[in-house]
Amino acid sequence: MRTPNWTLLTDLYQLTMMQGYYKTGIAKQKVVFDLFYRTNPYNSSYAVTAGLQQAIEYIQNIHFGEEEITYLDSLQLFSDDFLEYLSEFRFTGDLYAIPEGTVVFPMEPLIRVQAPIIEAQFLETTLLNIINHQSLIATKASRVAWAAQKDGVMEFGLRRAQGPDAGTYGARAAVIGGCTGTSNLLTGQMFNVPVKGTHAHSWVMSFPDELTAFREYAKLFPDNCILLVDTYDTLRSGIPNAMKVFKEMKEKGIDSKLLGIRLDSGDLAYLSKKAREMLDQAGFPDVIISASGDLDEYSIQELKRQGSSISLWGVGTRLITSEDCPSFGGVYKLSAHINEDGSIIPKMKISDNPVKVTNPGIKKVFRIYDKKTGKIKADLIALEEETLDSSQTLTLFDPENTWKQMTLQPHTYEVRELLIPIFINGKNVYHSPNTMDIRTYCQQELSTLWDECRRFHKPHRMPVDLSEKLYNLRHSMIHKLSHKSKEPYKEFHI
Q1: Which element (helix H / strand E) includes 335?
Q2: What is the DSSP letter of 236?
Q3: Is the distance from CB of 459 to CB of 41 less than 8 angstroms?
């Protein structure tokens, strides 16, 4: 499938800044930008990163063609020589990223871009658009799948998604996060993920009666026959008619791979338990009960608590739109300049809002696991030149409350470096796994979280600490930058 040209999928100010870098002669100045997020979505203790494959495709296909140049020229903002420069524009830098499907935490770089400033600046908007959206949906899906326990979860929110791309790439992210498949055929075609579905109420209403509708559907799809039973009356009509059809199939010797009913309205806990009782008494203990209807992780968890007999969940609107958390909140910030001699000038943003103060320098992320359980103990953000060996005693401390410390003895923990090379000198050096393999990897990642981190109410927060070297750099720069201005602070009185 042809990859779209998303070159102009960006904010105008990226191009005006780029022209500024070009005109002032600093376009080739090498810099480092970090893409990270500040707070977990959904009041969760973690997130799942997703969207890297699309980010790679975007970077590979950046191209200011004749149509793009003509449009930019029509804005009467850009000089002829700058537009000529854009006609040959390509990404020539390095990009490191945490692989898709990885469990991640606030403030750690998900992507690190090292490139000439004119190139690194240009990537900002589109990278954020891709990573923010897919990471948001993947995280939501991981929560829904956790609530469903070992049951299957189908994503089918396309009709409620905020546009075709959100529906298609959102479905991909939902599968990465834990959904077993999607109703979206385009997602199935593009990413080779399972597509599944049943039928709508309109199918039942299109026939003279419910029983005829069920019989015709069973003839067409005997190996995947899930009947929607709540069009008229679930207990008096829908389930009895479904059981008649299942009995007829059995008498004809039809050995279906999948028989089931779907509930889409009413008291799902009560109806599912009654349905299970009716099906079992009629000799259909293997017929599954699926449910849909504005479900999310909270309603599924509550239905589980109430002992519902549902084993397949269809989740649409509240997943694909991330109804309770509309944005992921990722940001893209300059963290270093790199001189021609290779020396590094750390950069950081200072803010009156402490959470908006950034971490300076070129950084890496170490993940530290408990060797005995395989669970995550903490993440450590360190400077690029630092190393970490599990044969040494390691003391970690909270960067805000430094008296909170944890000491790990040698050989009681394992270390993994999260950021890996994706582009080197503009060339893609990473082969993105297929979506289902990323899903499997994500399930392994989620298993490294403690159960306390996955609860929905006041989950345990995973420590994300700074190395001592980075901590000292950060605080020395805060001191330096906060005292840089010679103008005294002015008091205002009301």
Answers
A1: strand 330-338
A2: I
A3: no
The amino acid present at 13, given as its one-letter code, is: Y
Distance (Å, whole) CA 449 – CA 48: 12
User: CB within 8 A of 201, min separation 6: which ones?
Assistant: 228, 231, 264
The owner of tokens 């009509």 is: 237
C-alpha closest to that of 85 among 24, 11, 23: 23
Percent helix, percent strand, percent coil in the chain, to nearest 5: 40, 20, 40
Element (H, E) at 366: strand 363-370
Tokens read off for 10:
């960006």
Q: Cite the DSSP H helix spans in 152-232.
A: 164-177, 185-191, 201-205, 210-220
CB distance 345 to 481 below 8 Å:
no
Kindly state the DSSP code that residue 198 receives in the 8-state scheme: -
Backbone angles phi, psi at 208, to 5 degrees: -60, -30
Q: Domains of the chain by range and CATH?
A: 12-119+354-482 (3.20.140.10), 139-320 (3.20.20.70)
Q: Which residue's entry shows tokens 């696991």?
A: 369
Q: Provide the edge-to-edge strand list for the sheet that holds 363-370.
A: 413-417, 363-370, 376-383, 464-466
Residue 231 in 3-state DSSP? coil
Query: Rounded CA gap, 228 and 389, in Å?
Result: 57
Q: Which two tokens stand for residue 372?
A: 């005995």
Is residue 220 exposed (0-12), middle (13-18) or buried (19+ Cβ within 10 Å)?
exposed
- Residue 325 burial (C-beta neighbours within 10 Å; 0-12, 13-18, 19+): middle
CA-CA distance, 437 to 169, in Å (whole number)? 16
Per-residue pLDDT of the chain in tens (494 residues, 90 and over written 9): 455 689 999 999 999 999 999 999 999 999 999 999 999 999 999 999 999 999 999 999 999 999 999 999 999 999 999 999 999 999 999 999 999 999 999 999 999 999 999 999 999 999 999 999 999 999 999 999 999 999 999 999 999 999 999 999 999 999 999 999 999 999 999 999 999 999 999 999 999 999 999 999 999 999 999 999 999 999 999 999 999 999 999 999 998 889 999 999 999 999 999 999 999 999 999 999 999 999 999 999 999 999 999 999 999 999 999 999 999 999 999 999 999 999 999 999 988 888 889 999 999 999 999 999 999 999 999 999 999 999 999 999 999 899 999 999 999 999 999 999 999 999 999 999 999 999 999 999 999 999 999 999 999 999 999 999 999 999 999 988 877 654 554 443 43
CA gap 157, 203 in Å, rounded: 19
Q: What's the DSSP call for residue 223?
A: T
Torsion angles phi and psi, residue 395, rounded to 5: -110, 125
